[in-house]
Structures are given as C-alpha cells and as structure tokens.
Write a structure and sequence with these properties.
Blueprint: E1 19-26, E2 31-40, E3 50-55, E4 61-66, E5 79-91, E6 96-104
Antiparallel strand pairs: 1-6, 2-5, 3-4, 3-6
Length: 107
C-alpha cells in the first residue's frame, strides 16, 4: 500500500496510551498477502507488537504474527518493519480484511 520511502507527515505523536492501528482492504481479484509492514515511530521503544489479519465481517483470524522477536538493530526507530506471512494468505474476491498492529504507544 505504501512505498518504501513513504513516511507519515507527523511520524511520532503520543499521549502515552497503547493503540491498535489497522487497515481495511478488499480485493477485486484473488491474490496473496505475503507480508505486513508497519512504521516503527522514532520514539517507539521495544518491539512488543502483535500483527493480525482478520475477516472484517466475522472477526475470524487468518494470521497472527508476533513482532517481539524482531532485531531492533536492523529496524531502527523511525523505519519500516516487515513481517512475512508463511505461508502467504490467499485472498478471496468479495472478502474484506482487517490488517492491524497492536502495541503502539505512538501513532
């Protein structure tokens, strides 16, 4: 959805609360979700993020990824973190998905 050079206009706002941030998407042709990528804010400490891909209508969980094991030396604060889905999630036409990342204190 975003290219590697894209960053938010204000990449590091916080009120100290935890947030789950997500993206709702649907496809007009079948395909695969191979990875989920999120921006680790410049002030974001730690890596305790959980990523899920859900069915928007039923809440069924298609994939759960734990980002706690990522190497923070290879994904500095203020950079993109990419987590691969193994195997990739095959998408269906007419299904709406929610991809979200939990555990942010910055938004």
């Amino acid at each position: 959805v975003y290219s590697p050079g894209d960053t938010p206009a204000e990449p590091a706002s916080t009120d100290g609360s935890k947030y789950a941030l997500g993206l709702r998407l649907s496809t007009s042709v079948a395909g695969d979700i191979t990875a989920v990528r999120f921006l680790r804010a410049a002030g974001e400490a730690g890596t305790g993020h959980v990523v899920q891909v859900l069915d928007w209508n039923t809440g069924a969980v298609y994939a759960t990824l734990d980002a706690s094991g990522i190497d923070t030396s290879s994904c500095a604060a203020g950079s993109w973190v990419s987590l691969r889905l193994t195997p990739p999630l095959r998408t269906a036409v007419g299904t709406t998905y929610l991809v979200y990342v939990d555990g942010f204190t910055y938004y």
